[in-house]
Design goal:
Structural class: alpha+beta
Helix content: 10-25%
Number of domains: 1
Order of helices and strands: EEEHEEEEHHHEHEEEEEEEE
CATH architecture: Sandwich
Number of helices: 5
Distance between the termini: 45 Å
Oligomer: single chain
Number of strands: 16
Length: about 250
Amino acid sequence: DGVTEVLAHRSDSLRDKFIEIPCSEDYDSHKRFEGCTPRKCGRGVTDAVVTREEAERIRRIAERGLSLGGSDGGASILDLHSGALSLGKHFVNLYRYFGDKIRDIFTEEDFALYRDVRQRIQERIAQVFGISSSAMYLTKPTFFSRMNSTGAKTTHDEYWHPHVDKVTYGSFDYTSLLYLSDYSEDFGGGRFVFMDADSNKTVEPRAGRVSFFTSGSENLHRVEKVQWGTRFAITISFTCDPEHGIGDPLL
C-alpha cells in the first residue's frame, strides 16, 4: 500500500483543513461553466459545519429509511431524491413501493434538516473554492449509505474499488461526504482513502465531519472494507451544469 498519511483523525476537531492540488484534465472533456467549473482543485475536511447532534438526527432518518429494505450484501443505499432503496439484490422506489406509509417513516422536519445541512455544505464548498454557491446545483446520485462487514452479493455491494467521481458520474464537479458515525467506535475499517501517486491520505469518519473535494482524477479514492460494526454516511454531490441539477427531496 506504500506510505499512508492520516489527513483527519477521528479524535481531531477540525475547523477547516484544506489541501490544494493541481486539477486533472477531466473537466476539459465537459462543458465549462465560468465561475463554477474547478480551476482551483483540492480536498477539505471540516468538523465545523454540521454538529454531532445534527448528524445523529440525520443518521436516524437513514436508519428509518433503510429499515424498510437493505441489501443482502454489505452496502445499502437510500436516495431520498429518486426514491432508490436497496432491497435484497435489487433496488425499489421507496415512494412507489410504500406510498402514503412514507409519512409514518419521515417527517417534514427530517426533510427540512436535510435541506438545511445540504445548503450549509454547499456554501462551505463554494467559499473554499472561491465560487458562487448559486452557480452550483445539487446533482444525482446524492444518497445515504450504510456499510457493514457482510460479504458482497452483487457488484453494487463492492464499494471498495478505487474510482474517480467525474469519470463514474460525469455530472459531478464537487463531491462531499457527511459522516454519520464514528470510526473505531461504531465500526472498524471503512476509512476514506485518497490514492495519490506518492502515498495514500486517509480521512477517519466522525459524526458531523464533512469531507469535500473536486470530483476529477486529482482525487482518485476508495473506501476501505468495513471490518466490524456499521458505517453511515451521506454523499452529497454538486454540478456546475444546470441541466444536471436536481431539487431537494420533498415529502
